[in-house]
């Protein structure tokens, strides 16, 4: 059972990202502040939820939370500053956009850079422990998936509607056949070396 918050029930923001391991498209982060009373039996780490459950949770999180924000950092920036820094930048940008300033930040994973003077804590597998991080993981994933569905219309041969830019066999075969697009991350190893 996920706990509603980690450290403090007053304006604690959970943040997480989606798309770190992808070959194409942005890395997307979300930041969510939930009310102390928030409870949802379905909510969990977005990777453990079906597409339908994530889509079901998205409007619930958005309507029931105190504040939320989502930010994309695109492939040019990822190539320029590396994926770890881009992931942290996306989280910072999402937190920056919150209408309610947080008092404490909980981050999924083990790497983060201080944001302003707000205390933070990194929590390994935090999206499976705390509702505010799980909620952020769901929003990051659903917003990124929606964005990749739009890119799919422009370049259907890579099947981003299905693989969302992750390095599937099909995606790598399409890169071999068609080359790369402006949405691919050029700093990543896009096809394995023979």
UniProtKB/TrEMBL annotation:
<feature type="binding site">
    <location>
        <position position="16"/>
    </location>
    <ligand>
        <name>a divalent metal cation</name>
    </ligand>
</feature>
<keyword id="KW-0464">Manganese</keyword>
<keyword id="KW-0255">Endonuclease</keyword>
<dbReference type="GO" id="GO:0005737">
    <property type="term" value="C:cytoplasm"/>
</dbReference>
<dbReference type="InterPro" id="IPR024567">
    <property type="entry name" value="RNase_HII/HIII_dom"/>
</dbReference>
<feature type="binding site">
    <location>
        <position position="17"/>
    </location>
    <ligand>
        <name>a divalent metal cation</name>
    </ligand>
</feature>
<keyword id="KW-0963">Cytoplasm</keyword>
<keyword id="KW-0378">Hydrolase</keyword>
<keyword id="KW-0540">Nuclease</keyword>
<dbReference type="Pfam" id="PF01351">
    <property type="entry name" value="RNase_HII"/>
</dbReference>
<comment type="function">
    <text>Endonuclease that specifically degrades the RNA of RNA-DNA hybrids.</text>
</comment>
<dbReference type="InterPro" id="IPR012337">
    <property type="entry name" value="RNaseH-like_sf"/>
</dbReference>
<dbReference type="GO" id="GO:0030145">
    <property type="term" value="F:manganese ion binding"/>
</dbReference>
<dbReference type="GO" id="GO:0043137">
    <property type="term" value="P:DNA replication, removal of RNA primer"/>
</dbReference>
<feature type="binding site">
    <location>
        <position position="108"/>
    </location>
    <ligand>
        <name>a divalent metal cation</name>
    </ligand>
</feature>
<dbReference type="GO" id="GO:0004523">
    <property type="term" value="F:RNA-DNA hybrid ribonuclease activity"/>
</dbReference>
<keyword id="KW-0479">Metal-binding</keyword>
<dbReference type="InterPro" id="IPR001352">
    <property type="entry name" value="RNase_HII/HIII"/>
</dbReference>
<dbReference type="GO" id="GO:0032299">
    <property type="term" value="C:ribonuclease H2 complex"/>
</dbReference>
<feature type="domain" description="RNase H type-2">
    <location>
        <begin position="10"/>
        <end position="194"/>
    </location>
</feature>
<dbReference type="InterPro" id="IPR022898">
    <property type="entry name" value="RNase_HII"/>
</dbReference>
<dbReference type="GO" id="GO:0003723">
    <property type="term" value="F:RNA binding"/>
</dbReference>
<dbReference type="GO" id="GO:0006298">
    <property type="term" value="P:mismatch repair"/>
</dbReference>
<comment type="similarity">
    <text>Belongs to the RNase HII family.</text>
</comment>
<dbReference type="InterPro" id="IPR036397">
    <property type="entry name" value="RNaseH_sf"/>
</dbReference>
<protein>
    <recommendedName>
        <fullName>Ribonuclease HII</fullName>
        <ecNumber>3.1.26.4</ecNumber>
    </recommendedName>
</protein>
């Amino acid at each position: 059972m996920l706990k509603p918050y980690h450290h403090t029930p007053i304006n604690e923001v959970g943040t997480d990202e989606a798309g770190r391991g992808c070959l194409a498209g942005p890395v997307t982060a979300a930041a969510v502040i939930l009310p102390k009373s928030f409870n949802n039996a379905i909510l969990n780490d977005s990777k453990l939820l079906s597409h339908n459950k994530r889509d079901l949770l998205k409007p619930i999180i958005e309507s029931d939370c105190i504040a939320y924000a989502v930010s994309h950092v695109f492939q040019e920036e990822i190539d320029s500053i590396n994926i770890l820094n881009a992931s942290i930048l996306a989280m910072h940008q999402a937190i920056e956009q919150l209408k309610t300033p947080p008092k404490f930040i909980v981050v999924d994973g083990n790497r983060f850079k201080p944001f302003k003077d707000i205390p933070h804590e990194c929590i390994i597998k935090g999206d499976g422990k705390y509702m505010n991080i799980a909620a952020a993981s769901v929003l990051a994933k659903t917003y990124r998936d929606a964005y990749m569905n739009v890119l799919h219309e422009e370049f259907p041969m890579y099947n981003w509607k299905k693989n969302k830019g992750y390095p599937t066999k099909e995606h790598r075969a399409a890169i071999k056949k068609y080359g790369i697009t402006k949405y691919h991350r050029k700093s990543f190893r896009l096809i394995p070396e023979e």
